[in-house]
Write a structure and sequence with these properties.
Bound molecules: nicotinamide-adenine-dinucleotide
Largest sheet: 7 strands, parallel
Strand content: 5-15%
EC number: 1.1.1.50
Helix content: 40-55%
CATH topology: Rossmann fold
GO molecular function, one term: 3-alpha-hydroxysteroid 3-dehydrogenase [NAD(P)+] activity
Keywords: Oxidoreductase
Number of helices: 11
Strand order of the largest sheet: 3-2-1-4-5-6-7
CATH architecture: 3-Layer(aba) Sandwich
Family: Belongs to the short-chain dehydrogenases/reductases (SDR) family.
Distance between the termini: 35 Å
Protein name: 3-alpha-hydroxysteroid dehydrogenase/carbonyl reductase
């Protein structure tokens, strides 16, 4: 059975991934703010390093997979937390664990979002891709939650596409799932937000499949991509959103 590391495992999508992997007999090393094998605040450099060191200690023989699932939604304040956790922590941890993945030809599944396709490739995205964390946080500080969130996922998707070929040459598959609206504590907070709630409710009502998703429906696809059944997938971003992206961008794929 495999050895996997997962961030953001306490609730929502991460909790569902943890359950499915463990139900399939795998060892899952979990990282979260206040519970799990390693408690670490991934918004800060020290927390990311603590998480990397902790995973190394618990997986001395390497990793079959890594899922950087920890993330914050557009209702979170300060907005700088969004790029810190959604982009910089996911990238730093993937890079920091690469050698553990190389040895076992491991697989990374990132959690992007269908919202990534709703914003352009702007200065904020470029700052993230240029690894300018302070500048990206400063840039987004006085903007809006949707731009902060969707931009962080746009940058993460670009990072994946730029890096997946080189990782693949080394035998490590990196792919992403791009969920639509999934019923988790994150989306509950957005629905309850006075500025974002109404738009989110309307958006949820327009999902072509007729309802918003459940965390297990994302975990199903993540576990498939991690498995040998997806052994030729590399650099893919899979929309799991009830048809929303196809509805909004029919001619782009
Ligand atoms: P969630 O709030 O249920 O889970 C997020 C997890 O991340 C929690 O366990 C939380 O404790 C952890 N976390 C947050 N900040 C952290 C930090 N600083 N350090 C360590 N851990 C931290 O939300 P979710 O909806 O399950 O989100 C999981 C992922 O899915 C996120 O990356 C999110 O952006 C993405 N996503 C969610 C949706 C949705 O509609 N729910 C849609 C698209 C993408």
């Amino acid at each position: 059975m495999g050895v996997f590391a997962l961030t953001g495992s306490a609730t929502g999508i991460g909790a569902a991934i943890k359950t499915q992997l463990r139900d399939n007999g795998h060892q899952v090393i979990v990282v979260d703010l206040a519970e799990g094998d390693i408690c670490a605040d991934l918004s800060a450099l020290a927390g990311r390093q603590k998480a990397i060191d902790g995973i190394r200690a618990l997986a001395p023989d390497g990793l079959d997979g890594f899922i950087p699932c920890a993330g914050l939604g557009p209702s979170v304040r300060p907005l700088s937390l969004i790029p810190q956790v959604n982009y910089f922590a996911a990238v730093a941890m993937t890079e920091g664990l690469l050698d553990l993945l190389l040895g076992r030809k491991g697989s990374v599944v990132m959690i992007a979002s269908n919202s990534a396709a709703m914003v352009g490739h702007d200065e904020y995205v470029e700052l993230m891709l240029n690894d300018q964390e302070l500048e990206a946080c400063g840039y987004i500080g006085d903007k809006d939650g949707h731009s902060a969130y969707a931009g962080s996922k746009h940058a993460l998707s670009c990072w994946l596409r730029r890096n997946a070929p080189e990782y693949a040459r080394q035998g490590v598959r990196i792919n992403a799932v791009a969920p639509g609206i999934i019923n988790t504590p994150l989306s509950d907070k957005v629905l309850a937000d006075k500025d974002l709630g109404a738009v989110m409710k309307d958006f949820g009502d327009s999902v072509p499949l007729g309802k918003t998703g459940e965390p297990e429906q994302i975990a199903d696809v993540v576990c498939f991509i991690l498995s040998r059944k997806a052994s030729f997938m590399a650099g893919s971003i899979v929309f799991v959103d009830g048809g929303h992206d196809a509805m909004l961008r029919p001619d782009q794929f």
